[in-house]
Write a structure and sequence with these properties.
Blueprint (H helix, E strand, L loop, with lengths): L1 E2 L2 E2 L3 E2 L4 E2 L4 H18 L7 E10 L29 E9 L2 E8 L10 H16 L8 E3 L4 H4 L1 H11 L3 E2 L17 H4 L1
Parallel strand pairs: 5-8, 8-9
Antiparallel strand pairs: 1-2, 3-4, 5-6, 6-7
Organism: Trichonephila clavipes (Golden silk orbweaver)
GO molecular function: nucleic acid binding
Protein name: Transposase
Amino acid sequence: MQVGMFGCQVIYSQFGLAIHQNDHQASRRFIEWAQNEIAIAPDFHKRILFSDEAHFWLNGYANKQNCRIWSEANPQVYVETPLHPEKLTVLCALWAGGIIGPYFKNDEGHKVTVNGDRYRAMITNFFIPELNNHDVQELWFQQDGATCHTARATIDLLKDTLGDRLISRFGPVNWPPRSCDLTPLDYFL
């Protein structure tokens, strides 16, 4: 897109990711699929188990990396933060029936990178046992497109557990890329 003599790129402001031309089509396909499911089962939206993880600084600092404030002026604000503060990684899932979790991962106070092995361990050791307390035949599991979520071994594990009731990139129902606006956890976790 051209604005005046300067080129502009549409940026998805929450994460600074460029929106690709096909993103709208992928989101539209997903929304049409969801509307179809709601036409069949009006309470379908209540059966989606949204999942995500977040990192928290234990010194009270709030990471506002995903929060953008647009302004015409540059206030030149500086925020001092400790170099290596204690951090905690929290994973949970939210649905109309409640919250599964939270699951806390802490490695001696440091933020834990959620890689494929750690994510699958969390699913195997925490999530699947928690699911046994609920009627999983009716639940759909949603996860975003993070690499650890979409690794072949992770998708296979989730499909073995949930069958076709998986909403994920590379899953039976494809989660549209760069679509955190469709999941409540990006607003509440």
